Amino acid sequence: MKNIVILGAGMVGKAIAIDLSKKYKVKSMDINPDALHFLSSNYSIETQFLDVTQEQNLSDAIKDCDLVISAVPGFLGFQTMKTVITSHKNLVDISFLPEDVLDLGQLAKENRVTAIMDCGVAPGMPNIIAGYHNEKMTIDSFEYMVGGLPKVRSFPFEYKAPFSPCDVMEEYTRPARYVENGNIVTKPAMSDIEFIEFEKVGTLEAFNSDGLRSLIYTLNNIANMKEKTLRFPGHIQMIQALKAAGFLNQEPLKVKGKEIIPFDFTSEILYNAWKLKPEDEEFTLMKVILKEIENGKSKTIMYDLYDEYDRKEKISSMARTTGFTATAAADMILNGVFSKKGLFPPELVGKYPECFHYIMDYLKERNIMYKKTEKPE
Known about the structure:
Radius of gyration: 20 Å
Strand content: 25-35%
Distance between the termini: 50 Å
Number of strands: 18
CATH class of the largest domain: Alpha Beta
Largest sheet: 7 strands, parallel
Oligomer: single chain
Mean pLDDT: 93
Strand order of the largest sheet: 3-2-1-4-5-6-17
Number of helices: 13
CATH topology of the largest domain: Dihydrodipicolinate Reductase, domain 2
């Protein structure tokens, strides 16, 4: 039986471990003993306390495994990936890290490692979809919108964070890059707010965020690409107010003789306000829109996802849709469906039809459905 190590036992890491433990020998590692105890006492999952910033300890902890999945917060992601790769271990990573991960590509090749980055719901699935269709026909424009939202809207934020709140804050502060007429354009995060109507949900607001990531460089034949995050109307205005007032500043501020960083203080406050309780019901919504030209004719292809909290397994929708994309990729690597060496963004995996269909079928088995529709222009 293949051995898998999961780094991170948070909401998404927990879902990953539970899913893979049904087929593989899984060990979950984290610095949170409560999270580890939950897994070891309820599932056939081995656990180990581990601080991933201790590089030698991390390398020693994974030395006997066949594959590693990294589900650590974004600020820990780059060095964790680097340590796993230099330990000669295949890797699937979902951390929303700020660094340019493609810089690790040569290192992955030198260490004969198969590593897939950004392999969650988004970034992740839109990349896989774009990569698949980019091989089949000419794409004129690519856009996707995505959000994970609570079913119960509660004052004041009407939002809950199903993953690391500091990664959510990155969406609100990291400049948003998109492609317009073949040129890379950078705008402030939370800009270009628009209201969009969705079936089952109603009106949501969409705003610019930095979700295209590797697509900007790997699929640079597509002239127009954009990604937006979805929230309930009014949410982003509150975040903009916090930003304007200085609550998201990174520069130290003296308060009663002590230095604090406003961003860290705000993140801690919001962590408590946004904390998703184990049985809080939420949903994940995503729309992917590709405008393509095939045999001289234009058409629009759309993929729609609507997924809800799993009451039976008690796993959040965001954990399912993010985590099971990663477990699909891990399963695919372990079964030899994808074995190329190097570091791969999801679009360079989805370009292979066998990989695209493998992941789609894996998710479908877990009742995560991407509904595809086509219409001619």
